[in-house]
Structure formats: C-alpha cells, structure tokens
Amino acid sequence: MVASRAAGLAPPVDSLYPQLDDDLGLRQQAEFARPLGFFGKSAIHPRQLGTIHDVFTPSADELAWAQTVLEAFAAAGGNAVKLPDGEFVDVPVADRARRLLEFAGRRLACTPDGVAPSPLLYAHSRQMLADDITFHVS
C-alpha cells in the first residue's frame, strides 16, 4: 500500500479469497481490506462478484460526503476549511473526494444500464472471460 502511494500509483487491489462457498468470509476479508486503502478485490468465480460489489462500491453517503467536501473546498478557494460537522478538509482530503466522484462517474458512464460496478474488479474465471467482461484500471 505504502509503496504504491509513494510511487504515485493507484491503490492496489486485494488478493482473492479462495473459499467459494464462504460468502461471509469473503465479505469479512473485503470489509477488512477496504479501510486499509485497497481499491478492489480479485475474484476467482462470478459468484463472488455480488459481495465484492457490495463492499467496494461507494455508497450514496460516501458520494454525498465527497460532493460536500469538494463544494466546501472550492468555496474556500482551495484552502483548508472546516466543515460544519467539524471535519478538517485540506488538499489530500479534497483529492480523495475528487477521486471518489471521478471513479463513480467513470463507472456509471461505462455501464449500459447506468448501474455502477465495483472498483477495479479483476475476475479470473473462464465464464467471465468467455462472456468477454473485463474491468480495466484507469
């Protein structure tokens, strides 16, 4: 994690969870990885996708937070600002909010039904490849 950020790279994707019949274990592992800064999780079977989508797709509350942060930061002329709830917003926080909204917008624009899939999901299964479904890092 630290090496990717220091090199200016996107956050890494967490490794796969090999137990196909353990949805709870997959969810727990993904929920542990996301706050550490992982941006997605590898999957080895399509049945894992729903859980991974649930965990790594930004929630409506996260998107609202990001919008609030960027509006306050812009209103402060790009200077550090304190939000009404007491949160301190500086350049790194504003950058995180911007990336979150950019990601959500890119993913939404890439889907025919307008439903955003999860971040940077690598699906390593023959079924996914046969269906020619691919998620790309951007």
Describe the SSE topology.
Layout: H1 2-6, H2 23-33, H3 49-56, H4 60-75, E1 81-82, E2 88-89, H5 91-109, H6 126-130
Antiparallel strand pairs: 1-2
Helix pairs in contact: 2-3, 4-5
Short description:
The chain has 138 residues and is mainly α. The protein contains six helices and two strands, in the order ααααββαα. A hairpin with a 5-residue loop joins strand 1 and strand 2.
Q: Please give the largest β-sheet.
A: 2 strands, antiparallel
Radius of gyration: 17 Å
Give the helix/strand class. Answer: mainly alpha
Query: Stretches where pLDDT falls below 50 for ≥5 residues?
Result: 111-138
Helix content: 40-55%
Strand order, main sheet: write it out: 1-2
- Can you give the mean pLDDT? 80
| General form | elongated
SSE string, helix = H, strand = E? Answer: HHHHEEHH
As a percent range, the share of strand residues is: under 5%
- The number of helical runs is 6
Q: So what's the oligomer here? A: single chain
What is the count of β-strands? 2
The structural domain count equals 2
Q: What is the CA–CA distance across the termini?
A: 18 Å
Features of the shown structure:
138 residues, two-stranded antiparallel sheet, 6 helices, disordered C terminus
What does this structure look like?
With 138 residues, the protein is mostly helical. It folds into two domains: 77 residues, no CATH class; 57 residues, no CATH class. Strands 1-2 form a two-stranded antiparallel ribbon. Helix 4 packs across helix 5. The relative contact order is 0.15.
